[in-house]
Amino acid sequence: MTLPRYIGALFFTIMICSNADGQNKEIDSLFNLIKKDKEACPRPCLRDTSKVKHLNDLAWQLKYRNVDTSIILSSQALQAAEKLVASPDEAIAKAGKKGMAISFANLGSYNKQQADYAKALDYYFKALKIKEELGNKNGIANTLGNIGVVYSSQNDYSQALNYYFKALKIQEELGNKQSIAANLANIGSVYNVQADLSSRQTGPHAANPTELSLSFGLALNYYLKALKMAEEVGNKNFIAASLGNIGGLYTKTRKFAEAEKYLKQSLALCDSIKALNYTRDFEKSLSQLYETTGRTKLAFEHYKKYLAARDSINSEENQKKQARTEINHEFEKKEALAKAEQDKKDLLAEEEKQKQKLFLWFTIGGLAVVVIVSIFIFRSLQINKKKNMTISEQKTLVEHQKKIVEEKQKEILDSIHYAKRIQTALLTSEKYINRNLNTLKK
């Protein structure tokens, strides 16, 4: 990567500046918060938004130590956020969308870091879509800028400028001076690289001097604007980078006095803020300038300073690498312990689930027996009731028939008695007549 592109990309890279102990504490804190978040709610709720945030934050903390772990954590954050989006609660769904946008943007950054530009763009465009839906203008501008960085890394400078200008327009509307400075620097870097590439062409493809001068002029214009904006916000890193970029550009256009002035100003500021990366790059630029102008002694002095800064960075990088290894080891240990603890909880939960399932089956079985017995009893009662009704009906019929028979018998007896009385009455009169006849005969 050429120096201007490197400096431009730095404006969109968030570096971790705290020491290893501070980083460890932050990671430990986030790790513990994530453990608590897992037990926050049984179903999507507002508390789950913290889980998404903590996962994304931890992923970002590990970005420069273990990018693979960062990708895993951001993917987990994305899954958790997607569940929130599905919630019928509007506030929870909106929070889920915000979490998804952050996860997509972070995944874009991690893949850009690994030079997987196709994936990086895919994630950035997904983040952009959600941020546009949410109306998050600052988020839209930042994502547009990141997309520009990816296109620049792919040497697609036309698209890079397209997205840088889109980002710049929004940041100017918002009045975000620091982001404006970043976009101006990135635009200047693209024009610088384009001019540099054109200047190296020979033969029939050689650049037109006027066009070349115009390209370098555009680069210088945006670098100067970036410097002015950086000075307004007081960002010394931005100022140092802008001064160095301008100095390098003046060297290319052979304005050596101006180049020396800006490079010296940049290096003085770099020394005061301990910006070793910038010191290394601009000491080398100044050494090359002195060599080009025939000042070999100064060239050698600044080359030695360049080597010292480079070696110091390498030594520091080795220390950081060792610290990263230790941090990764500690993180992996904690992750393994957490996994073991979670597995234990999952096992207990599974056992409890099996117990509940067994209890449920026993309950269902018991209820089934009760239902079957109840049905049997009910059917028996119904049959008995039917039998009783039949018996009752038969009894009623018998009684009714008996009553009819009794009534008939009574009628017959009454008739017999009546006939007997008549007969008796008749017999009595006959005796009476006979007695009277006998009396008359005498």
Give the SSE map.
Elements: H1 3-10, H2 20-37, H3 48-61, H4 67-85, H5 90-113, H6 117-134, H7 137-153, H8 157-174, H9 177-199, H10 209-233, H11 236-252, H12 256-273, H13 276-292, H14 296-441
Report on the architecture of this protein.
The N and C termini lie far apart (181 Å). This protein has 442 residues and is mainly alpha-helical. The protein has a domain at 45-135: Serine Threonine Protein Phosphatase 5, Tetratricopeptide repeat. It has helices at 3-10, 20-37, 48-61, 67-85, 90-113, 117-134, 137-153, 157-174, 177-199, 209-233, 236-252, 256-273, 276-292, 296-441. Helix 12 (256-273) runs antiparallel to helix 13.
Give the key terms.
mainly alpha; 86% helix; 442 residues; Serine Threonine Protein Phosphatase 5, Tetratricopeptide repeat; 0% strand; 14 helices
